[in-house]
Specification:
- This protein is an all-alpha fold and 631 residues long.
- Among the domains are: 84 residues; 42 residues, no CATH class.
- The protein has 36 helices and two strands.
- The chain has a two-stranded antiparallel sheet.
- Helix 18 packs parallel to helix 20 and helix 28 packs antiparallel against helix 29.
- It is elongated and about 110 Å long.
- 36% of the residues are buried.
- Pfam families: PPR (PF01535), PPR_2 (PF13041).
- One of its GO terms (molecular function) is RNA binding.
- This is Pentatricopeptide repeat-containing protein.
- Keywords: Repeat.
- InterPro entries: PPR_At4g14850-like_plant (IPR046960), PPR_rpt (IPR002885), TPR-like_helical_dom_sf (IPR011990).
Length: 631
């Protein structure tokens, strides 16, 4: 009888369920609003629309396809909504960025379970409201809702200070449910790593019994970020010894650590392991390998590896563009950039920043074209790209263009402010640099750091603002908690030396809390040369050679000073010492742009554009000149 009824309705129930399930899978993959409506029509046709399970599935499809209005209409027509229906609606609204509607739905919910609260917490965080997400967790506790592993993992990703992190950790322990959860422990480790509390991260790691690859990855990264690269590599070796297999993220981290250590030998071993495990095809791993060779001064190997790899993408091209830029090969970086665009590889913000950093003064036309591309791609509002644009313009002396970028950029971060202050300082715009510094001080969310004070002291040094420089230098620690380093002492010493205050400069160098380096002593040595003070020059030069015996600068100053005072024997003795230690003078270089090419000229080298033809013309001109003198 039941079979006859099913045939009478033209419907075989099991096959209809199978058909609907397949249609759901197709809709989820395509995220097509049209397919979602077809599925809705099928439910109405077979009489399943009043079924809560299938209604929830249809609601999910509408939200996945972005049809929020259709989803709301279906939700309002639901005859029997359950908690799952409300949760699906809540999650869908957050996924489509409808925060206010999600809050309304949450307030209207007749019953909230832990999934509802988790959805609200994760959704608020996703929409950029981490403080509200933490407040929701407190309300959840007040409603006596037991948090889950997912709750704590979300909260751990939101914490921005150690005190809150410790409170979340305390909640984990007091819950008695999740303290041994691997997911929660990994989240706590990552939280403490982000906060820089590496000891706490290690203690969490030690409490985990069944550690997985994510646990070891967090430990390796903690050791690396704490500054102990060797210990990080030791943990990687221990990870393999205990039987945990590394993944792509592990090996990319290890290759990056070798890059930071400039350890080519270990870096090669890590890359060999990548090849053995089949990870080199991963663009993150291959990009890290390209970067490693570059930082180990093996740019040619970076290029070879790049050419060997197949399936270039934006991330991989970025690695080689950055490598070219880092080594000063701006023209090669630009060629690769153009080639990648011809291969339909769309540049991202990192690509643009790298190519702008590689620009030099003879590539102004290309820089302007890249700026136009930035506007075309809609990247001009990105702070990192805007910073690179300003840096390029400052480097090429186009201060007004740089300040135009400064005026039109919103959301300025500290790096952005530092770039403006330093750029103006290096282009002899000290007054403007000081004015920008005063603007920064009015920002209550940003505080000047070491780089900021370095830039403003450079400005004072170039302009000869002695009083302002001394005042800013003395306020670093007192008002802003920034401890002066070698670079700050070098600026203030040079400022005093330029003002003729040699004694004050030497007193500062003598009273430093650490041994001054050559950059601090060089201005004093140059000032002693201008004064003809042989005794001071000899004392400072001896001090410099004690820390940097391979430096030729102290020898050259002493030679010039001895020759100025007619002490030829001492001059010969210094020259003999230089030859004995095989010290060479630093050679200068310059570049010139001719059409689309850039040519480099270094001291002691003859590089001629045009080759043999140019030499022939020079010989002809020389012969013609000699002939005219005879007649």
């Amino acid at each position: 009888m039941f079979q006859l009824l099913r045939r009478a309705h033209g419907l075989c129930m099991p096959s209809s369920y199978l058909h609907l399930s397949r249609l759901v899978d197709r809709c989820l993959l395509s995220k097509s609003p049209t397919l979602a409506r077809i599925f809705h029509a099928q439910l109405v046709k077979v009489g399943f629309i009043r079924n809560t399970f299938w209604g929830n599935r249809c609601l999910q499809l509408y939200f996945k396809s972005g049809s929020v209005i259709d989803a709301f209409q279906l939700f309002d027509d639901f005859p029997d909504k359950n908690t799952i229906s409300w949760n699906v609606c809540l999650k869908g609204l957050f996924e489509n960025g409808c925060l206010s509607h999600a809050l309304d739905v949450f307030d209207e919910m007749p019953e909230r379970d832990v999934v509802s609260w988790n959805t609200m917490i994760s959704g608020s965080a996703f929409c950029g409201y981490p403080e509200y997400a933490i407040r929701l967790f407190l309300e959840m506790q007040a409603c006596v809702i037991q948090p889950t592993d997912f709750t704590f993992s979300i909260l751990a990703s939101l914490v921005s200070c150690t005190r809150h992190g410790e409170q979340i950790h305390g909640n984990v322990i007091c819950s008695g449910v999740s303290q041994f959860s691997l997911v929660v422990c990994n989240s706590l480790m990552d939280m403490y790593r982000r906060l820089g509390v590496y000891d706490y991260a290690l203690s969490v790691f030690l409490t985990v019994e069944d550690r997985d690859t994510i646990s070891w990855n967090s430990l390796i990264l903690c050791c690396s970020e704490a500054g102990d690269k060797e210990l990080a590599l030791d943990q990687f070796f221990l990870m393999r010894e205990v039987g945990n297999q590394p993944d792509e993220y592990t090996v990319s981290t290890v290759v990056s650590i070798c890059s930071d250590m400039r350890d080519l030998s270990k870096g090669k071993q890590a890359i060999a392991l990548c090849i053995k495990m089949g990870f080199l095809s991963n663009t993150i791993v291959s990009g890290a390998a390209v970067d490693m060779f570059s930082k180990c001064s093996r740019l040619e190997d970076s290029v070879k590896l790049f050419m060997y790899l197949e399936g270039w993408n934006s991330a991989l091209c970025n690695s080689l563009v950055a490598s070219y830029s880092w080594h000063g090969f701006g023209e090669d970086a630009l060629r690769l950039f153009i080639h990648s665009m011809r291969q339909s590889i769309r540049p991202d913000k990192f690509t643009i920043s790298s190519i702008l950093s590689s620009m030099n003064v003879v590539m102004l036309d290309h820089g302007a074209q890249v700026h136009s591309l930035v506007i075309k791609l809609g990247f001009e509002s990105d702070t990192a790209v805007a910073t690179s644009l300003m840096e390029m313009y400052f480097k090429t002396g186009l201060v007004d263009s740089a300040m135009g970028v400064f005026a039109t950029t919103d959301g300025k971060d500290l790096i952005f402010w530092n770039t403006v202050i330093m750029g103006l300082a290096r282009n002899s715009r000290a007054t403007e640099s000081l004015a920008i510094f005063q603007q920064l001080l009015k920002d209550r969310y940003l505080k000047p750091d070491r780089v900021t004070f370095m830039g403003i002291l450079v400005a004072c040094c170039y302009a000869g603002f002695v009083n302002e420089g001394l005042q800013i230098f003395s306020s670093m620690k007192k008002l802003y908690g920034v401890v002066a380093g070698n670079e700050h002492y070098a600026c203030i010493v040079e400022l005093l030396c330029r003002a003729g205050m040699i004694k004050e400069a030497k007193d500062i160098a003598d009273k430093m809390p650490f041994e001054p380096n050559s950059h601090i002593l060089e201005p004093i040595l140059c000032a002693s040369l201008d004064l003809g003070d042989t005794r001071l020059a000899e004392m400072v030069a001896e001090r410099m050679l004690g820390s940097q015996p391979k430096s030729s600068f102290p020898y050259l100053v002493l030679i010039k000073l001895y020759e100025m005072t007619w002490r030829w024997e001492n001059s010969v003795r210094i020259r003999y010492a230089m030859n004995k230690h095989k010290l060479n003078c630093a050679q200068g270089s310059s570049k010139i742009g001719i059409k689309s090419s850039v040519y480099s000229f270094e001291a002691g080298q003859l590089q001629i554009h045009g080759g043999q033809d140019t030499c022939s013309i020079l010989e002809l001109l020389s012969w013609d000149s000699d002939d005219q003198e005879i007649h």
